[in-house]
Amino acid sequence: MRKGEVKEMVENDDLTVESLGTHLNGKKIAMIVPGGIAAYKAAPSIARHHRQYGADVVIYTTDAALDFTTETSMDWASQNEVIMKLTGSSEHLLDYDAYVVVPATLDFIGDMANGIAHDTATTTAASAFGKIQYDGSKKLIVVPAMHGSMYANPAFQRNIDFLKEKNVKFVEPKITEDKANLADTHSIVAYTIRELSEDPLKGKKVLLNAGPCWAKIDAVRAVTNIFRGRLGLVMAEELYMRGADVKLIYGPGGLQVPKFIDTVKVKYYEDMYDAVLSEVESHEYDVGIFSSAIPDYKPREVISGKIKSSGGLEVLEFDHTEKIINKVRDLCPELYMATFKLEVGIAKASLLEIGWERLKDYDVVVANLLEDMSEKDHTVHPAFVMKKDGTVELSSTKKETSDMLLDALAEQFMEPAPQTGLFDYWCPRTGVPALPVSERA
Predict the structure, then answer these.
(1) Are residues 190 and 210 in the same domain?
(2) Nearest to 272 by CA among 212, 206, 320
(3) Which one of 180, 314, 353, 380 is least enclosed by Cβ atoms within 10 Å?
(4) Domain count, the chain
(5) Considering the chain, what is the average pLDDT of its residues?
(6) Which of 174, 196, 218 is the last residue in one of the domains?
(7) Residues 6 or more apart in contact with residue 146 via CB below 8 angstroms
(8) Edge-to-edge strands of the sheet including 433-434?
(9) 277 and 153: one domain?
(10) Burial class (CB in 10 A: 0-12, 13-18, 19+), 355
(11) Do 109 and 150 touch, CB atoms closer than 8 A?
(12) Do 107 and 218 lie in a common domain?
């Protein structure tokens, strides 16, 4: 009985994976596992993590890799037959959307750069290297891991440069303690998703700010708010995986920012103001998303040193801060902007009225009420995503809010539909046709 038949007859929860997204649905990935010490990470973690985003994973390996992992673990992780020997079926020529070489050793990368194919793994990689020369939709992704002295070898670096010139993509290692350690599992999978993305936001430059920022009182005290920027980090990661070139300006929310996000960290209101303005004045962005919890007020006077605990802080006078989003709009009247509006203790109808008023100046508004959020479950984030064309969507979680907002932004970059008919535009990521905004009711 074949493995596929067993799957149809018996459901085994141990063989399923938790879904983290649909980014790789319908995608076939060949994971090529050379014989390096980090091979033990390739299966189960990296193979299974690709599957958590919907990929169908087939593992190619050699006897050398089995010194560090096992056929059983790779079989279990991928739920496909592990290809260890090439047969008359020419397994190295099978078609995949992406080929991920992990862990890529100095020797293996040298074989790739010099066209050497002497076993299952190198022969499959050689075929993939050829395919990406004439089919831009295919991706060959290399994830190096080795001792630092080997990574610094000039001949090895020459091979990397050559491969990069020929469209091979690299997930850079973590250099620590004279070692080029394997990138973390999520960074590898997020990079695969990014490379295979067909989202309209791919290649677009996006500025995103998130998290709180402080208004100084004295050398050790500041006025701030309760927010930490969780939604902003969800959006930053999703933008990256959709293929956008995202720049994140993150306030002191204390959350771990994914390593692959290009981030500027700030603390105070003035720092956030300067960082945002510097970006829009020195770079041309396609989209700006402004989710940071900016203080509306700051102390009129910042007191030098530390106010004594015994007294001196009984009265504070405040001034309004300048609205960063208003300044950005003045400087960049053509920038497509999404802004956020939080209210407390008002009716939803009133919240929507405030949102419509703000849409006079901005393109998308995310409006929500504090009392609808949960202090215990930080995934909960009911919000109205409001667009200039008059449409409104209601989300219930941070993930839904992020997806609805980014889908709204992606609509602005839809490509002309490849077919004639009722619809003039369509979204390459979803395949959903849509009328241009100017023609919608």
Answers:
(1) no
(2) 212
(3) 314
(4) 2
(5) 91
(6) 196
(7) 36, 103, 105, 106, 173, 179, 180
(8) 415-416, 425-426, 433-434
(9) no
(10) buried
(11) no
(12) no
Q: Which residues contact 343 (CB under 8 A, 6 or more apart)?
A: 350, 351, 354, 367, 368, 369, 370
Instruction: Render pLDDT for 291-326 as a digit per residue (tens, 0 to 9).
Output: 999 999 999 999 989 998 887 788 889 999 999 999
Residue 434: band (very low, low, confident or very high) from pLDDT cuts 50, 70, 90: low
Q: Which residue has the tokens 């046709």?
A: 433
Return the pLDDT at 258. 95
Q: What is the mean pLDDT of residues 111-128?
A: 96
Contact 101, 142 (CB under 8 A): yes
Length of the chain equals 441
In a domain, 61, yes or no: yes
Q: Structural domain of residue 116, as residue ranges?
A: 18-196
246 and 187 in one domain?
Answer: no
Q: What is the DSSP letter of 45?
A: I
Same structural domain, 192 and 212 = no
The 10s digit of each residue's pLDDT in 7-47 is 454 567 667 889 999 999 999 999 999 988 889 887 789 99
192 and 334 share one domain: no
Residue 441 lies in a domain: no
